[in-house]
Amino acid sequence: MANERDSSEKFFSDKPLQVIEKLEGFKKLEEKEKLFKEFQQYVSNLEKQRNEELQQLQKLEIMLYKK
């Protein structure tokens, strides 16, 4: 009987820790997802900047060839 109580107490004392570990895992996953979205936005901004610079270069080339 005492063993049953000890094991049930251990089960119940470990359960909150397991839940907390899972929640921490979700927080880490959410943080990774947030960082990934920020990185995607950064890459998107770089691509836009590159495209704008390419367009400017093309315009300059056209202007140079017209002369």
N/C terminus separation: 99 Å
Biggest sheet descriptor: none
- Number of H/I helices: 1
H/E order of the elements?
A: H
Q: What would you note in describing this structure?
A:
With 67 residues, the protein is an all-alpha fold. 97% of the residues lie in helices and 0% in strands. The mean pLDDT is 84.
Write a compact overview of the structure shown:
Helices cover 97% and strands 0% of the residues. With 67 residues, it is mainly α. The longest helix has 65 residues.
What is the fold's blueprint, element by element?
Elements (H helix, E strand, L loop, with lengths): L1 H65 L1
What key phrases describe this protein's structure?
single chain, mainly alpha, rod-shaped
